[in-house]
Each structure stands twice: as structure tokens, then as C-alpha cells.
Amino acid sequence: MTTTRPARTNPRTDPRPRTRPRPRVLARTIAALALALLVTATGSSCDATDRTDRTDDRLDGITVAPGTLRVLASSELTDMEPVLDTALRTTGVTVRPTYVGTLDAVELIASGKADKDYDAVWLSSNDYLRLDPATAKKITSETPIMTSPVALGVRPAAVARLGWDPAKVTWSQLHQAVAAGKLTYGMTDPMRSNSGLSALVSVASGLSGAQAALTGADVRRATPKLKEFFSGQKLTSGSSGWLADAYGRRGDVDALVNYESVLRSSFQPDDLTVIRPIDGVVTADYPLSLLTSARPEAKDAARRLTEYLRGPEAQERITEGTLRRPVVAGVRPAPALARDQRRELPFPGSRAVADGLLDAYDNTLRRPSRTVYVLDTSGSMAGERLERLKSALAELTGDFRDREEVTLMPFGSAVKQSEVRTHTVDPASPQAALGAIRSDAQQLSASGGTAIYSSVQEAYRFLGKAPADTFTSIVLMTDGENTDGDPAAAFDAFYRSLPAGQKGTPVFPILFGDSDRAELDHLASLTGGKLFDATRGSLDGAFEEIRGYQ
Helix, strand or coil for residue 94? Predict the structure, then answer.
């Protein structure tokens, strides 16, 4: 089952439905994430290699009962590793997590791909999952473990400038400040992150005045205000961690919209004032849910784990360690968390309304994107590697947004200027641009050396001073080390000489073929981007994952 977006007045003529994201690409992305997890994700005392099936084992002299729980988990739950280590010692339940974005997890469950590989799912929320009856039937025993509301973290100077009392701010005040050009912010991509989806629903509910389940009429009524609100979004991201880092680098962004726990744990109170709008929020309740396909022995393991996590000792560890709120009476939230309650804003009442809101955000409400794809077409790309690149680009066209500007900039010993092509996706006739991009990709040919740094400089020059109402980024795909043009030191000097506005354009390199990890990681770190690894997964999966950051 795929998540098909609602029909539009001018639908694309591409025969593939617009999905979030396509199952083939999603499967490859998840495979890459799972492999990366085994290698790098867990740094606690009981790491990924230790979390194997146990039939009878001893830990520090304590006999533990058998039980392994394979969990598909929201990526933000990596901070629960210390609690799960203690749970293992106490209950004998070994948790083997695979971390992935919430909406991607929903797609795996809906498609049936999760049935074989997982026993349970632990997402920040099951709200979106429950909107599809067939998908909802695949889970059972939903037990909330902790909560965290959507909140806004604002620089104290901006709070003072706006004259706000943090305890009394409303969504209407936030909208007015943004519309007047007095407040800018960052938010994760709601198509790939549940914190972004919860933020989107919070804003839509808050500005529409909806008193019950959010309807299509509510969204339409709020659309003018929503468009004004999202004009203030200056940062987007596929993950909360990268968003926090990007916010820390930028001095021109006033606020972040995310879960309260993320804001509290990522920043000191002197750096960020956390505001929960007084008229209501959407709250994540992190339900640990069994899949109906779970192995019989996993059901008992899930019961033991759930009982432990909802016990007073574990609840105290959770709120102190993650700054989420306890769900058990008698356990007080961590001192950093305010005690006053907020109304729960209504979630969409149907899948059609939720998908319609997501589609509107992607194609109408948010700022359009300008992206330069700096593509290695040197001699070493000849043959299978070039064909993989062409295929990945063709696949990616199904995910480009309305109003998006896409530039293909192939390079060898230098940028191949005669082959540079730019297309803008026209909402009235999107297929014209998408077809042209696919055609341009098919015309790519391999020749020359590898001028990485000179070509990325050319991309910055091409983008110039970005318009204030766009997201800009550079995607670099290379299969080798820099052999031609400027060296790394020259690029570093070039980047540091850029005006502040242009420095806000990140480079997202893709590790592929024989490319140098250290070289590409330096480019990402210097420019505030992020390195994506296609050596463990697929090239089209890496391109797809970057979409959350554009």
C-alpha cells in the first residue's frame, strides 16, 4: 500500500502516483539506515552488536529470562538507550531497535514490509497511522510511555523584542509576529518527521480555530494565515538533530518549532525560551505498540518491557534523562518542565484531510526550493555508475515540488557549462519540467577528471544571493577524490569570503564509489550540510533522503 496524495486540479502526467515516499526508494533507504545502525548508531554500554537473541543468559551474575523485541522506532528515541539498557538488566528483554522517521515507519507497516522483520513499533505518535483503518489493524496493545508537546523555542532577545510573556503566547500572536516580519524560525519536514507533522497540525488547528477534528474546511479557512506563517520558515530539515545544529550556526533565525523535549535537551535556558502556546498544542505520547504479526514469545517480552517502562523508577529516569513528561500519576516531570497543562489541539479527522494538509504544505504553503545538483560525470563514472546516476535522477523527479527550481550541473575536469540546465516546476504544468529533467539526466556522459571544489564554487556563484523567500542547497555527488581545479584550501577560503546570506546555503555530499569520506565530510561540516552514504545503500535512496533538507 502506498500513500497517494490527493488528486489535484492539474495532476502530473507521470504515471506513478505522488507518494510519501515511494516504496522502492523507501525500502532501500530503510535498508541503508538499518545497516548504518548496526555499525554506528548505538554508543551505550549495551551496543547493537550486544543486542542479539538470548535464550538463557547472565548479566553481572543476574539471571535473565529469554526475550528479544525487534522494534521499529522513531529516530528521536535513540536517547532512550540508557533506559533500555537498564530494562534489559531488570526484565531480561533485549530491545533490537531500527531507527527511522515516523512517516517512513507508517509506510513500512502499511505495506506489510514490517510484518516479517519487527515485533513492535514505537513511534512518537500513532495519530497518523490510525487514520488508515487497514494500517490501524496491524497494531495492537498501544501503551503510551511518555509525552512531549509541540513547542516553540525562541531566542530570549526575540522574546524581549516582541514584548511577550512566554506563559501567555498564542498561535495568533506567533502568526502576527511572523506576518509582520518580526519572527523567523526553523521546523523539520512534516513529510518525513513526526515533529514536523505535529507542528504543522498544531499551527493549522491553532490558526483555524478548530474545536473538533481538523477538517478540510478548517484547513481552507486557515490557508491565508498558514501561508503567511510559513513565509517565516528559514530552516527545514529531515531530522531534529541537524535542525538544532543548523539553528546554532545561524544567527538570523529567531526560533525553532519542535517537541518540548528536543528544545529543552538541545539548548540551555539562556539560549532558548521554550513557549507552549496557551491555546493548545499537539502532543506526542510515544506508544509502544505490538504488531499483530509479532512472534508469540515477543508478546510476553513486550508486556514485561511496557510494565517496566511505566513503573515509577523508569518514569523518573525517562523524564530526567530525556526531558519528556511522565505518564504515570505520582511521578513529577523533571524540574526543567513547566507544570501547567495545555489543551490538546485536534488532529485531522481523516487520512484525506491529513494528506491534503501535507500536500498543501509541500506545494503551496512553504517557501519554494532552489537546488543545484553538482554531478560527477568524470571518466571514472563511465558504465554502471553513470547508469545508476541517471536512474536515481529519473526516480527523483517524482518527488520534486511545485515551484521548485532544479539545476543539473555536471562536471569533470571543470563544470561542463554547455550541459548545465535549470528547470522550474510550474504548478500549472509540472510534467514539462519533470520530463525535461529526466531527458537532461539521460544525456549525461562521462569524461575528464574530478574537479570537486571548483565545481561547488561554481554552484555557489550560480545561486548568488538567494532570494529571501526560498530554501537553497547544493547536492554534490562524486565517485572519486579531487584531482583537478582548486584544492580544498582554496574552497575553504572561497566559502569564508562569501556574504553571510550565501553562507547559509549548505552542501549535502553523497559518498559514492571511491569518493573520499574525509574530503566530503569536511565540505558538509564547513557549509553546515550533512554527509549521506550511498556506499552502504542505494544512490537513489541517498538522493531521496536529502529531500527532507531541501
Answer: strand
C-alpha 407/C-alpha 390 separation (Å) is 15
Burial class (CB in 10 A: 0-12, 13-18, 19+), 166: middle
Rounded CA gap, 87 and 304, in Å?
9
Residue 124 cell numbers, joined: 512518537
C-alpha cell at 91: 526484565
Select from 182, 200, 183 the least CA-distant residue to 127: 200
| pTM exceeds 0.90 for this model | no
pLDDT higher than threshold 60 for residue 35: no
- Domain architecture of the chain: domains with CATH: 23-146+285-322 (3.40.190.10), 149-283+342-360 (3.40.190.10), 367-549 (3.40.50.410)
What gap in Å lies between CA 297 and CA 54, rounded to an integer? 12
Q: Burial of 418 by CB count in 10 Å (0-12 exposed, 13-18 middle, 19+ buried)? A: exposed
Q: Helices (DSSP H) in 238-324: which residue ranges?
A: 240-249, 260-266, 296-309, 312-322
Check pLDDT > 60 for residue 26. no
Q: Contact at 8 Å (CB) between 288 and 122?
A: yes
**4-8, 128-132, 358-362, 371-375: range with lowest mean pLDDT:** 4-8
Other CB atoms closer than 10 Å to residue 55's CB: what's the count? 8
